[in-house]
Amino acid sequence: MQDSRVTLDDTDLRLLAALQRDAHLTAEALGSQLNLSASQAGRRRQRLEASGAIRGYTARLDPEGLGLAVQAFIQVTLERHGPEQAKSFSRMVETRPEIVSAWTLTGDADYLLRAYTTGLRALHTLIHEVLLSHPTVARVQSQIVMDQLKADAPLPL
Amino acid sequence: MQDSRVTLDDTDLRLLAALQRDAHLTAEALGSQLNLSASQAGRRRQRLEASGAIRGYTARLDPEGLGLAVQAFIQVTLERHGPEQAKSFSRMVETRPEIVSAWTLTGDADYLLRAYTTGLRALHTLIHEVLLSHPTVARVQSQIVMDQLKADAPLPL
DNA sequence: GGTGAAATCTACCTAGG
DNA sequence: CCTAGGTAGATTTCACC
User: Fold this and answer.
1) Which of A66, A106, A157 sits opposite B157 (nearest CB)?
2) pLDDT, tens digit, 9 for 90 and up, residues B95-154
3) Do B122 and B90 sit in the same domain of this protein?
4) Staple B75 to which of A87, B50, B109, B136, CB 3.0 to 4.6 Å?
5) Beta partners for B105?
6) Angle of helix A10-21 relative to helix A27-34, nearest 10 degrees?
């Protein structure tokens, strides 16, 4: 489970790419794609799981099909910048399930959030009653996703 | 495989949540979490796959472990806005593997891109030799990810 | 790289509402 | 008639050779 920075050869990279496309590929199917025997393909997979290169396997869901109609990016600027404020904000971000990702970036804003909500009303609630109500938040700017040209493509390997 | 907007009950939602956390859960493990028999849990999984609620299963990789050290968000504004320009830009976005996601948003910029590169030099190349060299691109503003507070959490179900 | 036991999936069957 | 639980053959994994 360690991040033992092992070197990955070309076959490893192709195996990772294949498992990003379909995590349910069998060792045999992987092997035929990579010109390996099933046992060798399975062994490589185990090694990549143990090394931490593969963090886990997850189901990709259809947000719209599940009623998550509105996706938005929200840039947040804090009032003051201290470890205490950052901690408090971070805890709030962790807690809210509709905030699926959060980053600190270079540039003006302190945080970029990505959120999925059931509608504009729910997004409005998130912004006003959660973010702007938070003591350290100074300014919030949200942009709603209109169209997704490219959706969570595999990492470039 | 159709998006037959079937109604999902509470058990379905909990099953989806569990499979987001771990796509390799067995039908038996799912069943014991949901107070169902293994066969029923498996049947529900199949139904959710067929209905399109589950789009597929993917391996979550460790970007830093794979040498993708620099992650960035890039806002792009186009010179002029016509179907021809949009098409041309969209084709370029599809082609570049380091651009993993692309959205059109409300607000000033025309596109928001998310990119993973091996380093600052590769990001610089992407911005200058790919984006700014593109005939219809007017302006590019990139922000590098410094820290990820919350990483691709499951969708809120 | 191959093999076999154990685990898992899934199509089919039966029971209950 | 529809939904839940059980069963057996086929498939897959994984420790060992």
Assistant:
1) A66
2) 999 999 999 999 988 999 999 999 999 999 999 999 999 999 999 999 999 999 999 999
3) yes
4) B109
5) A145
6) 130
